[in-house]
What we know:
By secondary structure, the protein is mostly helical. The chain folds into 3 domains: 1-19 and 36-103, no CATH class; 117-192, no CATH class; 214-294, no CATH class. It is built from 10 helices and 2 strands. It has helices spanning 2-13, 35-67, 80-87, 93-113, 119-132, 134-151, 157-168, 250-267, 271-282, 285-294, and strands spanning 214-217, 228-231. Strands 1-2 form a two-stranded antiparallel sheet.
Amino acid sequence: MADDKAVERRDRARAFVPELIPEPQDLDRTGPLDAKEQQQLDRIHAARDHHQAAKWMRGKALDAAFRRSLFRGEDGQRTRQEYLDAEWDGISESAAYREIGEWPLAKTISDACERPAPDSHVRALVDVAEKQGHESVAHWYAELRRHGQQLGHRVTADVVANLADFLREGTEPERLEALFVPRQLPPATAKPRKPAAPAGPAESGAGGPVTGTVVAHGQDRRDGSFPNLGMSGASGSGPARDTGPWVLSADHTARLSAWVMDGANAAGISPERAADLLVEALTEETFQHWIGTRAWT
């Protein structure tokens, strides 16, 4: 047993290397795991967590390259996109900024939970963390994971989205059990959403209704984040129905946020101004025609 403890300490003390993963072999074993098998399983899980941790490290690396202007190359003329094309398999600037925006929360969650979180979980919480702080959001996520483990509940992306809804509204969940209610049934302690306001112009940056059936839900554009746009009508190829406000998913919001930041940098304007311009373009009558001509293609 002492030898097992010593090996475990050595594993934790050194960086993960591929040689720690046990070789795949067909073994016909039954019964509880013995000490050696448990150690092998721990190393398999270490490989899993190393893969997830490498993702936030990649985001931090991109952040450092951009903020330190290391992308500019030996001649000092290389652009960010040229750098990404040469060194990062040609990913777009918007994709790079998405990774940059996610890594601080991913790292904080990894520290709080002692294991990384899935990408979909991090993306569901990024906009909340930007407002309320990474430590607070990571704390609640860790509590959610512990609660789910104790009760045998799966912590899915939808469950994390329920948590994000509570925190986004400034409400700490009184009962974590309520977060495991399916998304189509609002959690018992959730506040009812306000109906979409009538059509009409909204004050810039106020986070309220924009025009027509488009609403900015739960966001204040002054914080530099892209607002969640809600649109009445059901999704799909059928005729639109008046089913109340529809809100973009966290993944859509993250992708749009990165895209807006990308465009703002290219145009030399603030992300807030770029977001306002995009909302204005989306709420013009031309957008309704544009989307109508593509709905059946």
